[in-house]
Amino acid sequence: MRVLISGAGIAGPTLAWFLAKTGAKVTIVEKSPRLLPYGQNIDIKGSAVTVMRKMGLLDEVRRLNTTEQGTRFIDSRGRPFAPFPVKEGSITSFTSEFEILRGDLAGILYKATKDHQDVEYLLGTTIKEVISNDNDSVKVELSNGEVQEFDLLVIADGQWSKARKQCFPSESVKLVDKDMYVAYWTIPRLPSDDNWWNVYHALGSRVITLRPDPHGTIRAMFSLMPCNATQKKAWQEASRGDKQTQEDLLRREFADAGWQAQRLLDSMDQAPDFYFQAIQQIRMSKWSSSRVVCLGDTAYAPTPLTGAGTSLAIIGAYVLAGELSKLMPGEHPAKALEAYERTFRPHVEEVQKIPSFVPAIAHPASAWKRWVLQTFLSTLSRIVAFRWFPGGTAEGNDDGFKLPLYTRLEEKGSQ
C-alpha cells in the first residue's frame, strides 16, 4: 500500500511507524523545512502509554520529561497555597507522569521513523491540490510540482488543515468555540524559577502560568475568557490578526494582572515561538471519504482543556494502522477507514464532552469567585496528600478505551 501522510507532528509519524511494520510505503509531507523544536507541554496517558511502549519509545519519553514536579497554585501575593505533586503511577496531579514538550515528542517520533526504508519525509513540502479521489487511487499535486498517486491519503496536519478543506465540504466540519483564548511562548529562566507548574488566577477571567522545561528555559502562558461582547470582539479579531496585534492586546489586557505578568509581557518581542489561539474543538460528521481520511486534531481536536489531544492522536494512529493491516491485497481502504471510525469515534466523542462550567470555573471574574476556587483547590490539595487517597494510574486503559489487538502490528518487523 502506498500511503501519503500530510503532517509530521504526532499522529502522522506514529501512523507511519506502524504502517511500515506491515510493509506499506509511506511518504510524509511537512510544510516546515525542518522540524521546529517548538510547542508547549503535552502529556501521554491511558492507552497512549501502551502504544508508546509497543513502539519502544517510552524510555525516550521519560528521558525528555519536562522535569515538572507537579502543579502549584499561586495567590495574589505570589505565594503557593495548593500543591499537587506528581506521584509515580498516580493521576492525582494536574501534571502528568509522562509530561513532555510537543516539539520533543515530535522529534522522538521523527527519529524513530526517518531512517526506515519504507518511510520518506519531504520537508518543506505540502499538498498543493488533491486532483482526484476515486475507486482506483488518490492523485495529488505537491508544492514541489510533482504529481503522484497513492492508495491512501491521511490528513494529519492540524485543526486548520488546508488539505481537509479540499476533500471535505465545510458543512461536515463543525467548530465548537469554548470562549477562551490562549497565548504561549518561551522565556529565559531566572534563578528564582522552580520546577513546578505555577498557576495564578488574576481577576477579570485571566490566568497566568509558568512551567519548566528540560532545556533551561520556562514556558509561559496567558489565558482569558472575555467578560463582555466588546472584549470578545477584540479577542476574536486578534486571533485572526498578526503577531503585533496580538501582543498589543495582551499588553492592554494583562498590564494590571499582577504576579509575574510584566515579566511575561516584556519577553514577548524576543520569543521565537509566540503562539496565539482561540480554543476550539473540531468535530467532523465523517472522518473519511473514499481514499482520504483525517487523523488527530484534523479530525477531532478536543482542545487543551481535555488534556487528551496527544493521546487521541497516538491511539487514533494505532487504530487506523491496525484496521488497514487487516485489509486483503487489493481491497479498497474504505473498509478499514470505516472500521477505524466505528471503533474509535465513541471514545473520541466521550473525550470531547467538556462540562458546561469548563473553562469558566478556572477563570474567576470576581474576587469572591476566586476565593471560592482557591478554597476548593486548597482543600483538594490536602485531601489528595493523604496516602490512602485512591489516585488511579497513568497507564493501562484508565482512559476508558481498550486497545484492540492487531496481529500484524504485534509481529516483529524491520523497525
Automatic annotation (TrEMBL):
Q: Which domain of life is it from?
A: Eukaryota
The record's keywords, sorted A to Z, are:
FAD, Flavoprotein, Oxidoreductase
Which SUPFAM superfamilies is this protein grouped with? Answer: FAD/NAD(P)-binding domain
The record places domain FAD-binding at 2-351
One Pfam family from the record = FAD_binding_3
Key word Transport present in the record? no
Q: Does the keyword Oxidoreductase apply?
A: yes
**Could you tell me what this protein is called?**
FAD-binding domain-containing protein
Q: What is the lineage of its organism?
A: Eukaryota, Fungi, Dikarya, Ascomycota, Pezizomycotina
